[in-house]
Each structure stands twice: as structure tokens, then as C-alpha cells.
Design brief:
single chain, alpha/beta, Rossmann fold, five-stranded parallel beta sheet, four-stranded mixed beta sheet, 9 strands, about 45% helix
């Protein structure tokens, strides 16, 4: 358990193909007391994805029931599939002092900010639209019409960059990963959090 008190909540958004999933994975693997919130979704599993690790894969009827029970802090429909963020999963981790990462879109970010106004929001962008297209094509998971739809959606998503606290350009992966880690470290070192964490040390130094 972290000794930092209440954990921090980070919102990380990017257009599809922006590379946020890989960046988030690198961040979690390189730091302690930080975890990714696993979303619920009605879409099918992609090759290599594991239930309860990548997503909680559920049926539309179960998702609808969770919506009715107000189990989600935010939820949205993307390309015909539903995605939702569980309220209890986030609150439990934050209480235990664990920082929580939310991998969501800009619409979800707006909803999260209503419940967690102190959440730190980070927007990841590609170095160019052509690079974004190449990344989507490189997945070899979508047909041309789906890729076209994702590119159109990406342009809309990119227009919301100014609604976030930080902007990271994912051109060089290792540079972007370092910048993302720097944001988390800097936020952990804010005065308000350090006063709480270092209370005993500060009392001793000022005695």
C-alpha cells in the first residue's frame, strides 16, 4: 500500500492509433503504486486480449443493467460498442493510495472531471495524420472503411486537445514515455501532497 495517502487520478486520451495503450503499459511497468482502471466493454476480444486484464468483456444486456444501476462514472458508445468506467474500481484504489490511470476518450474525460475535478488530464497526439493512418493500417485488424471512419473521428478528437492539462506528442516512443512519467512524478511532488507525505520529516526539521 502506498504511503502517499489518497491516490491521484490520471485521464489519458488520444485518437485511435495514437499509441496511448503502449505508453500506459510502459508507465505502469516502470513505476510503483500505479494501476490502469480496466474498463467494461461490449465489443469482442481482439487477438491476445485477456478478460479482466485488458477489459471486462460483457454482454450488452449486462452493460445496460450496470448503466441503470449507476455503476459507471462514465460510459460511451464507440463504433457500435459500449465502454464504461466502473466507479467502485476507481474509488477503492484511490482510497488505498494507488494512482489510477484512465484510458478513455475526450467525452469520457469530461464526465470524469465532473466527479473528480482534481483529476490530471493528458492528451496524446501523433506527429502527423499520415503517421496515425500508418499505425492504424499496421494493426491489420480493420478494413479500409473502418480505418477511414477512425481517421475522421480522430480529426474531431484532436480538436479537443485544449481541454486537457498536458499535451504529449508521440513521435519517438521512448521520449513520449519519459514525458508521461515526468508528469506523474511532478504531480506526486506538489506541495500539498508532499506536506501530507512528509509530515513527520517536516515536523522534525522545524522542531
Amino acid at each position: 500500500m502506498s504511503k502517499n495517502g489518497v491516490g491521484n487520478l490520471y485521464i489519458i486520451a488520444a485518437p485511435s492509433g495514437g499509441g496511448k495503450t503502449s505508453l500506459v503499459k510502459a508507465l505502469v511497468e516502470g513505476m510503483t503504486d500505479i494501476a490502469v482502471s480496466v474498463s467494461h466493454t461490449t465489443r469482442g476480444r481482439r487477438p491476445g486480449e485477456v478478460d479482466t486484464v485488458d477489459y471486462f468483456f460483457i454482454e450488452p444486456d449486462e452493460f445496460k443493467l450496470m448503466v441503470e444501476e449507476k455503476a459507471f462514472i462514465e460510459y460511451a458508445e464507440v463504433f457500435g460498442n459500449f465502454y464504461g468506467t466502473s466507479k467502485s474500481q476507481i474509488e477503492d484504489r484511490l482510497r488505498r493510495g494507488v494512482d489510477v490511470l484512465l484510458d478513455i476518450d475526450w467525452q469520457g474525460a469530461q464526465q470524469i472531471k465532473l466527479s473528480f475535478p482534481n483529476a490530471v488530464s493528458i492528451f496524446i497526439i501523433p506527429p502527423s495524420l499520415e503517421t496515425l493512418r500508418q499505425r492504424l493500417q499496421g494493426r491489420k485488424q480493420d478494413k479500409d472503411d473502418v480505418i477511414h471512419a477512425r481517421m475522421q473521428r480522430a480529426k474531431d478528437e484532436l480538436s479537443h486537445y485544449a481541454e486537457f492539462d498536458y499535451l504529449v506528442v508521440n513521435d519517438d516512443f521512448y521520449c513520449a514515455a519519459s514525458e508521461l512519467k515526468a508528469i506523474v512524478i511532478a504531480h506526486r511532488l506538489t506541495m500539498s501532497r508532499q506536506i501530507e507525505k512528509q509530515r513527520k520529516l517536516l515536523s522534525f526539521l522545524l522542531a
